[in-house]
# Entry
Amino acid sequence: MEKPLRTANELEDLIKQRTIHLFGPWPKAMTLFVFEERMGWNVSISSANTDANAF
# Structure
């Protein structure tokens, strides 16, 4: 059985939902980038520059 294909937005939402469930609220200064490549998906996370920005 084949899994349904997902969009970048759907993958981003799924990753954030699972992360929030395990670790708590998603930090405001943290950005998740999801983009398609030739052979699949690439995900990158950019965190806050300082500890003060993380909260």
